[in-house]
Design goal:
Length: 256
Amino acid sequence: MDKVRIPEVVLNSGHKMPAIGLGTAGSKLPLAEQLPLLVEAIAAGYRHFDTATLYGTEEIVGQAVAEALGRGLIKSREELFITTKLWCTDAEHDLVLPALNESLRKLGLQYVDLYLIHWPIKIQKDDSNSIKTMHFDIKGTWEGMEECCRRGLAKSIGVSNYSCAKLSTLLENATIPPAVNQVVLRWILQQGGIPIVRSFNKERMKQNLQIFDWELTDEEVGKIQQIPQQRACNPTDLVGPHAQYKSLEELWDGEI
């Protein structure tokens, strides 16, 4: 695949983030088969990779980084932008730092470029592996994220799946404001977003990078904006009568 040069955006942390990233969630391919495809993606020009504790792909992303370095596809780790996410079991002040250290161990890296709170939800698993939702401490969990940033283990920190109301609550208490609130490709880009694409098909990986040398017309943008929107991911198993959020409406503060 021919290498594509990807533009960057500057986050409020001052760090640069490539304007498109490759996601690693939900692939049905065995991890061993994903490795060469991730290396292919680096060869094609991808520099931003999105993983998470939940996805189980941190180790394979780290292996791809190491192989790309070994093969000279990149000159240094600093050429890449690696994002990972804090899972709900570790969403409390004293667990954030150990969770990131474990992610770094799996990735084989000294730092991540972006660390996100995956969901504004705290869960606990009992001995039978049943899930129990606990109270999510927005302020305390974010303080744990800020500590990761101060230690240089995460260059930037942010959130994922936060409603505007929850983001406002966080901002009222934050010392370091979130650099990102992570939420078709060119449309997302023109709205000021950073699309995270997911494909392990070589041709589609290449096609997903072909969005930087053209633009949608105002009419095309308007038509896309008229398409009814809905949440692509709703954790129905984490809301209910005995959970902190009784419904999806409450989780999203009406933004569903």
